[in-house]
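Researcher: We're teaching a course module on how sequence relates to structure. For the next exercise, students receive a sequence and then see the predicted structure as C-alpha cells, so they can try to spot secondary structure elements on their own. Here is the exercise chain.
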Amino acid sequence: MKDSNTKTVAKKPAASKTNPSKTSASKTSASKTSASKTAAPKGTVKAKSSAAEGLRDLFVDSLKDIYWAEKALTKALPKMAKNATSQNLIDAINEHLKVTEGQVTRLEEVFASVGEKAVAKKCDAMEGLIKEGEGIMEETEQGAVRDAGIIAASQKIEHYEIATYGTLAAFAKTLGEDEAVSLLVQTLNEEKEADTTLTEAAYNTINFDATEGDDK
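Model: And here is the predicted structure for the students to work with:
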C-alpha cells in the first residue's frame, strides 16, 4: 500500500529559452521598418519653417511674388524701349509700361480684397527673365536683330505672367474670393493682349528685317 502521507510534487514546466541577440535584432528590425514608413522619400525637398500650409497661404505668397515681379518690370521696360529701334515696338513697350503700372495698383486692390497687406517678395523667375533680356540686348547689334531679341525676351515675360495670373485666378475662385478673381482675370486678359501685340509686331516687319543680316 502506498503511504497516504506521501505528497505528489508537480513538475514545473521548463522555462522557455530566449536568445537575447535574436530579441534585440527583432526590435531593431521593427524600429527600422517603422522608420522606413515615416521617412521622407529620397529627393524630397525639406519645407522651410515659413512654408505654406494651406491654399490660402500659397495664394498670398504667390501674390507677393508677382507683386515684386510687376514692380521690377516697370524698371526694366524703359530700358527695353530705349534699346529698340522700331517705332511700333517702342510704342508697344511704352504702352505696356503704363498697363503694368496699373497692374501694380490692381494687385494692391487684390491684397486689400483678401484682407492682406501688399508686400513684395523677390520673384526669382522674373529676375531671371529680366537678366536674360539684358543679355540678349548685349549680344545683338542695335537694329532689327536687337528688336527681334527684345520681342523674344518680352514674350517670355508675358507667358510667365499669363501662367501666373491664370493660376492665381484659379486659386482665388477655389477660395471663394470673387472680387480677387475679377481683378486677376482683368490683368490676365491684359497680358494676353500684350502678347498678341508683340507677336504682330514681330511678324509684320521686325523678324523679316532681321533676316537681312543672314544674307551677308
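Model: If you want an answer key for the exercise: The CA atoms of residues 19 and 25 lie 10 Å apart. The mean pLDDT is 85.
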